[in-house]
Amino acid sequence: MNLETTPLLTDLYELTMLQTYYEHGMTDEAVFELFMRRAPERGFFVSAGLDQALGWLENLVFGDEELEWMAGSGLFNAAFIERMRDFRFTGTVRAMPEGSLFFAEEPVLQIVAPLPEAQLIESRLMNIVHYQTLIASKAVRSRMAAGDVPVIDFGMRRAHGGEAGTWAARACYLAGFGATATCLGSARYNIPPTGTMAHAFILAHDDEATAFERFARSHPDNVVLLIDTYDVRRGAERVVEVAEKLAPDGIRIHGVRIDSGDLAANARMTRSILDAGGLTETRIIVSGGLDEYRIEALQRENAPIDGIGVGSNVDTSADAPFLDSAYKLHLYQDRPRGKHSAGKTDLPGRKQVFRHIEAGRMSGDVIGLADEDLPGSPLLETVMREGQRVGEGQAWDLESARLRLGDGLTQLAPDYRALREPDAYPVTLSPGLVALRDALARAL
Question: Which of 108, 142, 186, 415 could hold 423 in an S-S bridge, CB 3.0 to 4.6 Å?
Answer without folding.
Answer: 415
